[in-house]
Write a structure and sequence with these properties.
7 helices; globular; binds zinc ion; alpha/beta; about 190 residues; single chain; five-stranded mixed β-sheet; Nucleotidyltransferase, domain 5
Amino acid sequence: MHAHALGESRYGAARGRGTALFVAVGTGVGGAFVLPGGTLTGAHAAAGHVGHVPSVQARDLPCSCGGTGHLEAIASGPALVREFARRTTLEVADLQAVIASGDAEAASVIRLGGLAVGAMIGGLVNVLDPDVVVVGGGVVNAGDPWWTALIEAAGAELLPSLRDAEIVRSAPGGDAALLGAAALARELVGEEA
Ligand SMILES: [Zn+2]
C-alpha cells in the first residue's frame, strides 16, 4: 500500500503535490498518507489503515481484523458482494457480477459502498487537510454511481473551509504501483547506506 501510494505521489495523480491521502478500495480497504519526505509510517509502522475506522454503514458486521463495524466490513469488493447476496440470495462471484445482475439491489449496494468510503475520506480530510486525495483499487471500476456517492458523502463531512478539497480517481493502470515499489526500494536502500 505504501509502495502504491508513493507511486501515485511521484508519478501518478498526486504528482507534484505536497501531501496526499491515498485510499485503495479492492479486496480490502487500505491507505497511506504521503508527505514530501515519504509516507507516514506511525509508531507501530501501521499508519494508513483507513479500512479500520468505524463506519455507520458497516453496522455490526465482522471485520477482517477481528473487530466489528469497520469500513472494510462493508466497503471492500468482497464485502459489497456479501451485502448483495444477503439482500437478494443471488449467488454472485464478484463485484462485476453484482453490477451485471441488473438487480435493483445492485445499485443500492454500490451506492452504499461509495457512501461509506466517502464518509471516511471526508473525515480524514478534516484531520489531515491533504493537497489531494487519490482513490484507487478495483472497486473504483464499479463506475460513476459508486464515485458519485463517494463524492457526495465526502462533501457532507467536510468542514466549510475544506469544501474545495481535491478528490480524484487514481490514474488507470498498475504502473503507479510498480513505480512506487521501485521508489520505496530506493529509499530503503538509501536509509541503510
Ligand atoms: Zn477492522
